[in-house]
DNA sequence: TTGTAAGCGTTATCAT
DNA sequence: ATGATAACGCTTACAA
């Protein structure tokens, strides 16, 4: 009843040859033409398909790469995924995705998975970099590329954004258009991006010779509600609302827009708004959102490239001491209506 | 130099026991306590991790499930993915994603992958259902769940949306708010959703006793540009612009909003707009977009559930003749500002 | 060109 | 409770 799955042996017997010959046929190795034909005919007839698991056991390769991020639904990670997938696919790798919820424990589990031979390599974008995670990274059983920042000396290839420059671009733009009371709505300070953007904001303000008014700084999550809430709080500032809002990502900015609209304030006339990440949401919102592109797509592409280098290279695929590569992707300010009005 | 990867044999020797005992320890089978301790100690010391590939070869399971869609970046598929992933994960399955570009050839390749034992099961959402694809579905070497519609009798579990009812809900809503000249901007008619929505539009209009004016029907891609372009064309209708636009998905609707805005028409006062799929974009756009929720998230969840049933069941996991299950997810109209103005 | 046979790292069936 | 040993399906010397 249950159709037995044909193996190389089944075919060998049916075609009256050895299993070695069958294997050769399927690996494009030299075989007599008549043999090849017979084997292929039987394979076709019996519906034979080579078993990739058995092949993996011999070759010690899975032809899979894992991609681990906090939440694959986040547009930033999605942008990376969209770039990574085709690049790896072109080299014959399938993609296994992990949504870790940002839990270092789960991320470490994924790293362990490399030892179990779940995948030949990993692209990971940890949102919280703990010592345990760094340890696991250093011990990874297969090539790993981190999208994000790791402490200097960490023996892992990594592709990072330049939040500092990005924030500076945004601040300069806001100052250029005459804004002076700039509010800042950020995500959690115990995350890498949150901490980075906070520092960058403060440095940037200092550079511009502007003091930071803590009453104009709000910290929450990287979520829309945080933007709405943060904007509400900053609008209630005793000296009146700020004339610009720098938001640590686009979702926060959208939330801020909601609040501003509800408060009857005009964007950008009364308050200019800048987001970060330049996700597809920025182009859709109304007014369209000026945003700092931190190059998610490019970071994804570069990460895939770095990983492929290691994967293609000879076995010593882990970065030899000091050979870890760091790529930094330059940010770019995408100016839209939320700061300049003008175009729709 | 190259740290040799320890195997069960390495540990057995180090601990002075047989490989069988090591295996038992790692599978929670009865072993003397002292033995267990010794094995675990050596495993820890040598950094032993069980090889999942070897395990798969024996067990004939990969603990992986594949998810194949046209473009994983499409919010609709993404919504499915977000639901599917945790459900499968809870049962210990990893997720392999495939973006097929809607090419039936690639989809068939993924189906073949099941025979190669790349995955234990598959959730697939084909956008074009060709005879070849149906053939491959019927022959799949492992359980498959289709998200979408398949011809009656196809021996595959499937979870479908109800476009017909969805379109009807939208039409009724537009008629309810007094619209009479309803335009329709659709995606390609050679895709399942495109064809379905076209038929539903015509039926719905007929039901409502309204003739279909072909000058108010536009067909393009499921893209924003199609919406912009379609709206432009319909606005130029000799009898003047329509007073409502039904768009076959949210992207199209956003494109239409662009055009309407550029033309100085008010939404919804001059033209009401309805999208479909109720993606996150609908809530972000301005005005926020009334949209027909076709239950992407729920379809994903249900599909994962159906697949798990088969995966957990005894080997005869393919639907026995006639036992294929079909689940239909009810649509729901989500009313927002693009038809009623009012709220924000 | 082809076949034999030895693994790849597990699990599982026997004995013991 | 433990140990040999035979699979699992394939690739790959080594022989013939």
TrEMBL record, chains A, B:
InterPro entries: HTH_LacI, LacI/GalR-like_sensor, Lambda_DNA-bd_dom_sf, Peripla_BP_I. Keywords: DNA-binding, Transcription, Transcription regulation. It comes from the Bacteria. The keyword Manganese does not apply. Residues 6-59 form the HTH lacI-type domain. GO terms for molecular function: DNA-binding transcription factor activity; transcription cis-regulatory region binding. The keyword DNA-binding applies. Transmembrane segments: none annotated. PANTHER family: HTH-TYPE TRANSCRIPTIONAL REGULATOR GALS, LACI-RELATED TRANSCRIPTIONAL REPRESSOR. This is LacI family transcriptional regulator. It comes from Streptomonospora mangrovi.
């Amino acid at each position: 009843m249950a159709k037995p799955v044909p193996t190389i042996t089944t075919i060998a017997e049916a075609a009256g040859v050895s299993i070695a010959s069958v294997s050769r046929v399927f690996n494009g190795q030299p075989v007599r033409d008549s043999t090849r034909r017979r084997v292929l005919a039987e394979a076709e007839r019996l519906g034979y398909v080579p078993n990739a698991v058995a092949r993996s056991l011999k070759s010690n390769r899975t032809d899979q790469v894992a991609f681990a991020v906090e939440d694959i639904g986040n547009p930033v990670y999605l942008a990376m995924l969209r770039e990574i997938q085709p690049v790896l696919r072109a080299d014959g790798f399938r993609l296994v995705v992990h949504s870790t919820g940002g839990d270092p424990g789960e991320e470490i589990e994924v790293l362990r998975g490399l030892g179990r031979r779940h995948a030949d390599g990993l692209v990971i974008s940890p949102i919280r970099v703990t010592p345990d995670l760094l340890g696991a990274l250093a011990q990874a059983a297969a090539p790993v590329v981190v999208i994000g920042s790791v402490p200097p000396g960490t023996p892992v290839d990594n592709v990072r954004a330049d939040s500092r420059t990005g924030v500076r671009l945004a601040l300069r733009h806001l100052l250029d258009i005459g804004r002076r009371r700039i509010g800042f709505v950020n995500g959690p300070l115990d995350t890498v991006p949150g901490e980075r953007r906070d520092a960058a904001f403060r440095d940037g303000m200092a550079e511009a010779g502007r003091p930071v008014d803590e009453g104009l700084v709000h910290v929450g999550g990287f979520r829309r509600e945080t933007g709405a809430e943060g904007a509400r709080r900053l609008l209630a500032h005793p000296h009146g609302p700020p004339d610009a809002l720098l938001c640590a990502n686009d979702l926060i900015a959208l939330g801020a827009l909601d609040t501003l609209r509800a408060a009857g304030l005009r964007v950008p006339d009364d308050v200019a708004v800048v987001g970060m990440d330049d996700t597809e949401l920025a182009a859709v919102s109304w007014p369209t959102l000026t945003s700092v592109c931190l190059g998610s797509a490019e970071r994804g592409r570069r990460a895939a490239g770095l990983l492929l280098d290691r994967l293609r290279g000879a076995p010593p695929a882990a970065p030899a001491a000091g050979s870890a590569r760091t790529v930094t992707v330059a940010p770019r300010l995408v100016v839209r209506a939320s700061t300049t009005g003008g175009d729709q």
